[in-house]
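ARCHIVE CARD
Drawer: 12
Card no.: 0347
Subject: one protein chain, sequence and derived structure
Cross-reference: see card 0346
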Amino acid sequence: MIMKKMRSAYTLTELLVASAVGSIVMAMAFSSFSVINQKYQKYSDLSNLHRSATQVLNIITRDLRMAGYQDLDTANGLIALAVITENNSNSNRGSDAITITYDADTQKRIKVKYYLACKDLNQCTESEGRYRLYKSKSSKTNGSSWIVDYENQAVADYIDDLQFNYNMANGNSQASVDNAEIKDLRSIDVSIMLRTARKHIKDENYRHELEDNDGFNLDGGYIRETFSTTAFTRNLELGG
């Protein structure tokens, strides 16, 4: 007589318990991954924010430091307007755009303009609040007329505010300078407000109010930071 070999097996109760425990473990793992991923995205975006701010400020200040530089043997005559300021509101905080003129060498003179504009519309609204920093450049060679090299070239995205403030030889700071005051300009403060590309704040009703736009609130949910630096305009002091 052949004896049948008994095989052990899981009971239905054990399978149900194992499935429940496995589901709990998976849910906890997914929850932990989600939290870690959100934190990673947040700090990754903040890192990009700081890196972009550094690059933008370096680009702008490089031109600001050259403002009014006039080559000793220039073929283009005197620089009459080394700095031109613009402001799109009634605020006294600072100007929103700036045009800078300087000599690249004996023959070539450069004029660059930095300004902020909406990416998709002529005027941003609360629902379309994506701004970009733009740059336009013109040049003239050997006393010729100005030639446009390029216009509306995007420098950086997700910049919500751009401000320039002017520090004078008498120690005062002001929101703009006129033609007669350019020779007394000693340095320019530059401030930019950047936001993250993704939303990180759960409260969609959160709004950030621009300092230089009356009663205008930016779209909620994004992380925003303001970065500033100072560029010294030493060429203007020399009478450029």
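Annotation on reverse: The mean pLDDT is 81. Residues 41-237 form one domain.
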